[in-house]
Structure formats: structure tokens, C-alpha cells
Amino acid sequence: MRRLMRLQGQVKRLAEARLAEAEAERREIEAAQRDLDAFVGEAPVAGKLASLVVVQRRRLGAQAVLAGQKVDRQAQETREARTRLKIAERMAETLGAEDRQLQERKEFERLLDGMMGRKPAAL
After folding, report:
1. Rounded to an integer, what distance in angstroms lies between the CA atom of residue 76 and that of residue 83?
2. What does 37-65 look like in DSSP terms, one character per residue?
3. For 12-16, 21-25, 38-42, 61-65, which range has the lowest pLDDT when averaged over its residues?
């Protein structure tokens, strides 16, 4: 069970790292869009430069959409990894409690058998 929890923890950390990378990529694209807008806002552009600006805006817009989708996917993956880790933790707690109860029952039966002068029953 510990191995499963350790594995789920690693999956969660990996999903969180991927989410952070996707968010950083999205921020970089947004910064590039702001820089382009600032450049265009400073001075009028015409001719070939204007067409390059239009092409770059389209490219950055498409990249921004893809980056946003990637962030959404990674956020969902991270939520799912966290959920799986919580489930594994709860399973471990439940199994641990059941194991403790079984051990307590065995100890109680051993004490009762000792008090009654009987040999312990095999469980």
C-alpha cells in the first residue's frame, strides 16, 4: 500500500510540474502579445512591417489558445492525480484500522484462552 501511495504521490508531483510548465508557457505568450501591442502602439506601422505584425498577432493568438487548452488539460490531470492520491491515502487508513482491529481481536482471544486454560485457537 505504501508503494501505491508513493507512486500516486509521484504522479501528483509530475502533474503539478507539468501544470506549472504549461502556465509558464502561457505567461510567456501573453507577455509576447503585450510586447507586440506595445510596439504597435508606440509608432504607426505600414507596409511590410504591418503585414508582419498581423502575421505575428495571429501566430501568438493561436499559440495562446493552444497554451490555454494545455493549461486546462494539465489542471484537470492534476485534480485527478490529487483525487487518486487521496483515495490511496484513505484506503491505507482503512486497511491500517482493519489490521489494528484484527490484531486487537487476536490479542483479546489469546488473553481469553489463557484465562480459560485453553490453547490459543489458530487464526
Report:
1. 11
2. HHHHHHS---THHHHHHHHHHHHHHHHHH
3. 38-42
Output DSSP code: residue 117.
T
d(CA 5, CA 86): 9
pTM of the model: 0.70
56's CB contacts (< 8 A; 6+ apart) are 36
Give the separation between CA 25 and CA 18, rounded to whole angstroms: 11
Q: What stretch of H or E contains 112? A: helix 48-116
Contact 15, 78 (CB under 8 A): yes
Whole-angstrom distance, CA of residue 29 vs CA of residue 63: 7
Residue 19 near residue 81, CB atoms below 8 Å: no
pLDDT-derived band at 120, boundaries 50, 70, 90: low
